[in-house]
C-alpha cells in the first residue's frame, strides 16, 4: 500500500504538521511508537514556554482557544539571589508582551484530540518504524497486530533527536552530524502552590535562581504549581558542584541549603525529590542533511535541529517549521512537492543553525549575566531605546520571542544594534542607565540605531498585549456546526464558580461579580476602538461611548441584584474566607481608568482626602508625580518603565491602600502589566485625545464623554458604595456576625482592610475622568 504523505512521530511537530496539512485539504498517515503520546516522556520538560512563532501556528490550527485555560502569561524573569534579594526584568520593555507557560501534556492532549477528530488524519499509535528504505520509498512497521509494509510519496521525520528517518538520510548521504551533549544536565521537580506561596513566587513570571556556574528555574502551571528545573554540571570540579557529588540525600540537602537556601527552607521536600530524580542530558544536534537524495524525505523539529532549552525555542521553532513547510506544500502541485521539501531545507537550515547557537549562548546570560549589575543598567537603556524607536529597535530576546523574523536575520540585526550600544557605553559609561537619552549624549545613539536599522515588518511583530490569552471560547469546528452549549462555552462558564465556604448564597455573589467583570471586558472592547494606535475620527466617539455607558448601567444594576440575592447575614458567613480579596484588585477596572483619564486626574488630592499630599502638576498626564519629583516627566511626552510605575503608585486607590495585603497581592500579580498598560495609553487615553480635538469636534463628543463619566464616577461608584454600606455598616439590628468591632458604631473593615466609608465616599464624590468636560454637557 502506498500513502501520499507519511509522518513519523506523533509529537508536537508531527501532529501540528498533520493538522495544518488537513486544513489545506491534504491527507496524511501519522505513525507513532507510543500508545499514548500525551503521557509524555520522563526525559522531556514538564512545561513549555509558548512564544509568538508557536502561537501563530496554533492559531492557524485553531487550538489557541482550547488551550486558553492552560496558558499562564509570563511577563518577564524574576531573579532570586542567594541572599534573598529579588529583581524583576520584563521580557518586553515597551508593549507588555508575554510568553505563556504551558504544560506539555495539556498541549499534547489537545493536539491528539484534534488529530483523532480529523478525517484526513490516519493516526497509527503503538506502531514502530523498523526499516526505512529511502531508495524504494518504503517503510516496514511493527505493532502488536503484526508487521506491515508501507510505501509513500513524501516522508516527514518528526520523530525527535533519535530520528529513524534522520538516521536513514545520514546513512544514504554520509557525513552524519554528531550529537553533542553539554557538560550540564538537569533534574525536574514540582513546587506545590503552597511552596510557591511560601517562596513568594508571583504567577506571571519565569523565576530564575542564577548561581554563576549553574541555575534553577521555575515556570508556573495553571493549577498554581510550578515546574522547577535544576541545571547543574554532570561532574563536580573545583568550587563548582555537580550531580555526581550529590550521591546521598544528605549531600543534596547540604547543596540546597548553601546554593538555594530559600527553597531548602520553604520547600524542604525538594531535596528528596531531587535525590530520586534521574539527571537527564542536554543533547544538541544540527543535522547536516535534512532531505534524502531524491527529495522525497525530510526531517523537521528536533530530528533536524535539537537545541539547548535556554531560550525556550525548541517547541516554537518546531511549530514554525510546520507552518512554513505546510505553506510551501499547499502551494505546490504533487509533482513539485520534492522541490518544496528541498526549498524548505535550504531556506530553514541557516535559521536553525542561528537559533541553536543563540540557545546555547543564552545559558551564560541566564545563570551569570542577569545577576550582574550591568545587566539591569543595560536593560534600562534598551527600554528607553525601544520606546524611542518602537518600529526599529527591539532587544535580541524580544526579537526571538515576540517576532517571526527569521532567526538568522534577527541574529545579524541584534549583533549590529548591540555593537552600537557597546560602543556608546564604552564612550559614555555614565549613560549606563539611559538617563542621557534626552537629546544630549543619548541622542547620537538613537540616531545611529535609526540609521542602521531598517523598520521592522509590521506583520512580523506580535501586537502589544493588553491582556494575556485567557478564557477564549473553544474552537467551533465539527461538520454540523456548534451546539448552543459549545458556542457559549456553557460547560466552562457554569463550572467557573468556586465557592470557599458551604454558604449557598456565595455562588450568587461570585456569579454576579463575574458578570460585572464580563461587562468590564466589553467596555474595554468599546474603548479600544477609540484609543488604538491611530486616532479615530470624532464622529465615531459618541456611539462607542454610549455603548460603554450602557454597559456600565447594566453593571450598576448588578449591585442591586447582589444585595437582593445575598442577604447581609449570609454575606458575613463567608466574608472572612475572602480576605484579602477585594474589588480594588479588578485589573480590568484599573485598565478602564487608564484608557480614559490622564494619570494626574487619577491622583487628585480630593479623591483620597489627603490634605498632606503634594499638589499635582495638571500637565503631567503621564505620571501624576508631585511637582519637583525628578521621576516625573513634566513635558508629558514619553512613557518609560519608571514613569509608568510612578503613575500606578500615584493613583488614588494605590495611595489609599499602601501597606495592605490586598495591594501587595495586586502589585505582585498585575503590577508590571498595569504599569506597561499605563505607559502605552499615556498618549492614547480619551482625555488626552479630547484635548487635541478642534473646538467643533470637542462639542460633538463632549455630551457622550460627560454621560459616560457621570455613569461611572457617580452612578456606578455610588451604587457600589450603597452595597458596601448595606453589608458592612453598623445596622440597627446589631453588629455583623463574627466581625471584629473596635467600638460601637464603627463600620466593619473591608476585606482589603480599608476605612471603606471614608475611602469610597470621597472617591465617589471627587473622581472625574474628564474634568475639562462639564457635566452639564451630558444632558
UniProtKB/TrEMBL annotation:
Residue span(s) of domain FAD-binding: 5-356
GO molecular function: FAD binding; heme binding; kynurenine 3-monooxygenase activity; L-tryptophan 2,3-dioxygenase activity; metal ion binding
This protein's record includes keyword rRNA processing: no
Database matches in Gene3D superfamilies: 1.20.58.480, FAD/NAD(P)-binding domain
Region named Disordered: 614-641
Pfam hit, one: Trp_dioxygenase
Organism domain of life: Bacteria
Cofactor(s), names only, from the UniProt record: FAD
Biological process terms in GO annotation: L-tryptophan catabolic process to kynurenine
Record key words, sorted: FAD, Flavoprotein, Monooxygenase, NADP, Oxidoreductase
ATP-binding among keywords: no
Name listed for the protein in its UniProt record: 2-polyprenyl-6-methoxyphenol hydroxylase-like FAD-dependent oxidoreductase
Organism: Rhodothalassium salexigens DSM 2132
Organism placement in taxonomy: Bacteria, Pseudomonadati, Pseudomonadota, Alphaproteobacteria, Rhodothalassiales
